[in-house]
Amino acid sequence: MRARLIAVCETILILALILAQLWFVGKAVTFFTLIPATAIIISWVARKETLHSLGLMCAGFSGSGWLWKFAGGAIALILLIGAFVQGPIFSSLHAAGGLILRFLSYIVPAFLQQVVFNLYFVNRIDSFAGGSRRTVAVSAFTFAFVHLPNPVLTVLTLFGGWLSSSFYLRQRSVYPLALAHAALAAVTYCALPHAWHHGFRVGMQYYLYAPSPLDSCAP
Predict the structure, then answer these.
(1) 94-102 contacts: CB < 8 A, separation 24 or more?
(2) Which residues make Cβ contacts (< 8 Å) with residue 162, sequence separation at least 6?
(3) Alpha-helix residue ranges (DSSP H) falling in the chain
(4) For residue range 53-110, what is the model confidence (pLDDT) as tens digits?
(5) Which of 17, 78, 100, 148 is the most exposed place for a label (fewest CB within 10 A)?
(6) What pLDDT is attached to residue 87?
(7) What 3-state DSSP class applies to 126?
(8) Nearest 10 degrees: Cα torsion 143, 84, 182, 176
(9) Whether the Cβ atoms of residue 117 and residue 177 lie closer than 8 Å to each other
């Protein structure tokens, strides 16, 4: 009971630090980022986690077929919505090149998000949720909650959080997840209007968003 209480309090504290940065500091990566990052590392060390137990070994690709089916279905749906709203994004090689560059630029951020979400939050939630279904549900809602008030990202991360935590609990690997995350993010960014997703801003930055040429999906 004490261990579960500590896990709950620790999870809430780290979540609060991340939300404070997004809402009050206003940027995704700042010096303030070191505080929750350091706390997460200390938590891993205190629990004597290893690369294998965390899921940082190069494994999980052989069992990722169903992950790509779900991710591919979501990508196809987003492309259809985008084509209906503002036309297909593959109308030229120039646009396709922009999508590829966007995907490549998202791989590292997607990997880091999956590390924090799964290696920390999913593992901690699993230690007190009382079953994999509850872990997946709480994890998905937590992931979506962090992306408020962005409506596109909130819906997308609710689905993504469910898919990601389900895969991680089965395969204990984040590498296939990072690639699927980057692909889904790149397609969403390029296919849907920026007026909908505000350049993927969350927290206070969502309300302060102003369109910029740097937000373009074109290379």
Answers:
(1) 94/218, 94/219, 95/190, 95/217, 95/218, 97/219, 98/190, 98/216, 98/217, 98/218, 98/219, 99/186, 99/187, 99/190, 99/217, 101/219, 102/186, 102/189, 102/190, 102/217
(2) 136, 137, 139, 140
(3) 2-20, 34-46, 51-54, 65-86, 93-114, 123-129, 132-146, 151-171, 175-191, 194-197, 204-207
(4) 888 877 667 788 899 999 999 999 999 998 888 876 665 555 677 888 999 999 999 9
(5) 100
(6) 73
(7) helix
(8) 90
(9) no
Using the predicted structure, report yes or no on whether residue 147 has a pLDDT greater than 90.
yes
Q: What is the pTM of this model?
A: 0.91
Token pair listed for 176: 């296939």
- CB 72 within 8 Å of CB 180: no
Q: From CA 148, how far away is CA 13, in angstroms rounded?
A: 18
Residue 120 tokens, joined: 């920390």
Distance CA 12, CA 23 (A): 16
- The chain-wide mean pLDDT, for the chain, equals 88
Give which of 59, 100, 116 is closest to 219, Cα–Cα. Answer: 100
Q: With a cut of 80, say whether residue 29 has pLDDT above it.
A: no
Instruction: Provide the greatest CA pair distance for the chain.
Output: 59
